[in-house]
Amino acid sequence: MADEPDDDVQAVLDAEDRRYAAMVAGDLTALEQLFVPALCYTHSSGVRDTREEYLAKLRSGYYVYRRIEHPVERAAVAGDGAIVVGRMTADVDVDGVPKTIDNLALAVWTRAGGTWQLLAYAPTRLPG
Fold first, then answer.
1. Type and span of the H or E element at 6
2. Which candidate, 79, 80, 70, places its Cα nearest to that of 107?
3. Are 122 and 109 in contact (CB under 8 A)?
C-alpha cells in the first residue's frame, strides 16, 4: 500500500534518482515537475537559486552536469515531508569551466498532490 512508510521512503528515493538523472540529461521538463514552485536550491558555491533561477541557468547552459553520483546514507519520511541525507559527487561545467564537486548533501522533499517534489537542496563541503 502506498501509504506505508517503506513505500514512501522508496518513492522519495525514486524521485531523487529521477532528479539526478534529469540533471545529467538536461531534462528541464522532468525537473520542472520535480521542483515545487517555492524551491530553494543551494549550490556548493553558496549561491542560492529559486526554482526559476535554477531552471534558467540550466536552460542557458550555465550549469551542464556531465556525471552525478549520489549515494544515500539515510532517508526519512514524516507526514508529507521527507529528507534524503547523503553525498553528491559530480563533474559539472559552471559557466563553461569544468569542475568536480564532492559534497555532503541534504535534500528536503514534500508531498504535493500525491507526488514527491523537491522543496530544498543544500550541499556542505566535506570536513577537513
1. helix 5-25
2. 70
3. no
Among residues 23, 5, 36, which one has the least CA distance to residue 108? 36
**What class has domain 5-125?**
alpha beta
Q: Where are the domains of the chain?
A: 5-125
SS3 content of the chain, % helix, strand, coil (to 5): 30, 50, 20
Mention every residue, 6+ apart, whose C-beta is less than 8 A from residue 32: 55
Per-residue pLDDT of the chain (128 residues; tens, 9 = 90+): 344 458 999 999 999 999 999 999 999 999 999 999 999 999 988 999 999 999 999 999 999 999 999 999 999 999 999 999 999 999 999 999 999 999 999 999 999 888 999 999 999 988 87
Q: Which residues pair with 41 in a beta bridge?
A: 49, 121
Q: What cell numbers appear for 82 in the block?
A: 521527507
Please tell me whether residue 57 adopts helix, strand or coil conformation: helix
Residue 87 to residue 83: CA distance in whole angstroms: 13
DSSP-derived letter for residue 34 is: H
